[in-house]
Amino acid sequence: MHLLVTGAAGNIGSRAVKHILAQGHSVTAVDIVPLPSSLQLPSGSIYLQVDCTDFHAFEKALLQVPCDGVIHMGAIPNPISGHDQRTVHNVNVVGSYNVLRTCADNGIKRIVQASSVNATGLVFTHESRRKFEEFPLTELSPRVPEDAYSLSKTICEIQADSICRLFDDVRVSSLRFHMTCDEDEAIPRGQRGDLWSWTSMDSAAEACLLGITANEPSFQRGHEAFYILHDKLFLGKKSWEVERGGYDAAIANGMDPDTVTAKELIDLYYPGTKVKEGWFSEGNERRSFFDNSKAKKMLGWDHVK
Ligand SMILES: NC(=O)c1ccc[n+]([C@@H]2O[C@H](COP(=O)([O-])OP(=O)(O)OC[C@H]3O[C@@H](n4cnc5c(N)ncnc54)[C@H](O)[C@@H]3O)[C@@H](O)[C@H]2O)c1
């Protein structure tokens, strides 16, 4: 297969490219910035410097080598990177529409786009408004974004719904990644604002490819969003500030970050939130606050470290 990957110079895009190449496929690697020196493309694969907000440029790149599918990772990945909030919104929303529409117009039937756990409104939602109807969150939980980034991810998913209504042979997988990194990466993870979860780089890269290759009969066309994240809650290995409700906060509250249960965290940080019967039952006391079973069923994906 030949796949076009946008955001190929970025964290997830570059890992997805390496994974795709390792599986014997070739790529058109697209980004607004050059690829890192750690990512060398073999013959048969090409790099093109393209801004996805320019649809003429993207279309030209798409037509350069016939493609079997497109993986769109090129975006501004949070609202706190120093960009104007309007830029965060516009780059993400316009880039996604350009990619989806251009692919559909040119007969590309399998598309993957990066979404985020923030499509529901999460990490960047003001503390006072971060409330949930029920745990675990599923792909059907209400989307209530308030910041530019989370809104852009919600809109990217809605755009995919609309493209798949218009082109009934197109399939789009929106992958809701969480904080994505390698297991040994020395950054703190797991805080109350993101419901103590994360995604490994390898799992994200695998989901990108499966979004194109998975052949579950019930998912041949149309748009689906998928939670791509770990099965278990995780408070990290290093410390956030206590007020972030992670590793340090557990210790400050007399809990062991490695054994604290979901129920204890709910009582402390989200008291009164409904929990699906049996979700945190005996043996599942440290299960994730997100249900990732849809990706397992429809993409044949699983979380790996
Ligand atoms: N990393 C995470 O923890 C995480 C979590 C949830 C969702 N996501 C989503 O996954 C995707 C990839 O994230 P990442 O962590 O690899 O981010 P990243 O910043 O490392 O990579 C994004 C890449 O996109 C490129 N890019 C930006 N605007 C572009 C444009 N207009 N045209 C072409 N390329 C453009 C950037 O140059 C960069 O190389 C993003 O959509 C992000 O929102 C990431």
CATH class placement = Alpha Beta
Say which molecules are bound, naming each kind only once: nicotinamide-adenine-dinucleotide
- Average pLDDT number: 95
CATH superfamily: NAD(P)-binding Rossmann-like Domain
Rg over C-alpha atoms, rounded to the nearest angstrom: 19 Å
Strand content: 15-25%
Characterise the protein shown here.
By secondary structure, the protein is of the alpha/beta class. The protein has one domain: 3-Layer(aba) Sandwich (Rossmann fold), CATH 3.40.50.720. 31% of the residues lie in helices and 16% in strands. The strands form three sheets. The protein has a seven-stranded parallel sheet, with helices on both faces. The protein has a two-stranded parallel ribbon with strand order 6-11. α1 (11-22) links the parallel β1 (2-6) and β2. The two termini are 26 Å apart. The relative contact order is 0.13. The model has no long low-confidence stretch (mean pLDDT 95). It binds nicotinamide-adenine-dinucleotide.
List the topology elements:
Layout: E1 2-6, H1 11-22, E2 26-31, E3 46-49, H2 55-64, E4 69-72, H3 85-105, E5 110-116, E6 134-135, H4 148-166, E7 171-177, E8 180-181, E9 199-200, H5 201-213, E10 222-228, H6 247-252, H7 262-269, E11 274-275, H8 293-299
Parallel strand pairs: 1-2, 1-4, 2-3, 4-5, 5-7, 6-11, 7-10, 8-9
The site of nicotinamide-adenine-dinucleotide has 26 residues, from helix 1, helix 3 and strand 5.
